[in-house]
């Protein structure tokens, strides 16, 4: 696995409070703002910080049914080139001691093919192929 | 506040599990590994992901005594140029609606001068002056 995170995503009870604090209060500019769903800010070259409506966050991580690790309110995302790469990396992470919370599948949000894997401390990684995501040469992240 | 995170830090019950999964299992190389305390991996240009012993994580965020927001198991860090800049930014974040969990002071770890501020959803930012931290032109993070 390349030593890289592409998204940091936080479950967020109050998206309006995000806008008031970061945008109005601190002057940040969203990279993408989807009403009632998610607000993304670029916070490092090639890295987006997402504030994701908590109800939709839980739904996005659901699906395993008997997952032994509950959603933690945080995901780290690692993007790869295609669905087969998602499957291969998830298998490698399971071999390394990870717990597959959601097997590789089409995601409910964002048009991704993805899976969720918890590390041994319960930190959740989303392994994804996202055809709408790219990073410009200067590090700027583009979505869609 | 510059739209930037410099560290993502996670409270971690089992540091040995971090080494087995990320280093031995996935082949990652720590940027800094302090036994019994913290392991840092660089996961984006200029960005470190820290796995911080959970007991020391809680101690690092303590000190306010009657903090209305409990440690969340996650901090985002934003580094500035000196102690006065820490004080000024913490004041600006409080004005923007943030909750000061730990007023500006010398930190217990890492030789930093820092403060902790929760955003309206309880996400904890560490605002720090860290004289041992720098970022090379190619994005590589140096500590000490």
From TrEMBL, chains A, B:
The VOC domain, residue ranges: 4-130
Coiled coil: none
Top-level taxon in the UniProt lineage: Bacteria
InterPro entries noted in UniProt: Glyas_Bleomycin-R_OHBP_Dase, Glyas_Fos-R_dOase_dom, VOC_core
One Pfam match: Glyoxalase
Name the record gives this protein: VOC family protein
């Amino acid at each position: 696995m390349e030593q890289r995170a592409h998204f940091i995503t936080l479950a967020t009870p109050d998206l309006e409070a995000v806008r008031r604090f970061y945008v109005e209060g601190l002057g940040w500019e969203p990279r993408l703002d989807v009403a009632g769903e998610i607000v993304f800010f670029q916070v490092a070259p090639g890295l987006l910080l997402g504030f994701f409506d908590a109800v939709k966050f839980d739904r996005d991580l659901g699906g395993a049914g008997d997952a032994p690790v509950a959603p933690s309110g945080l995901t780290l995302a690692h993007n790869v080139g295609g669905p087969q790469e998602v499957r291969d990396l998830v298998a490698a992470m399971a071999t390394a001691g990870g717990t597959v919370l959601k097997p590789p599948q089409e995601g409910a949000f964002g048009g991704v093919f993805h899976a969720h894997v918890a590390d041994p401390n319960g930190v959740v990684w989303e392994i994804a192929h996202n055809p709408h995501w790219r990073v410009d040469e200067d590090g700027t992240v583009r979505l869609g």
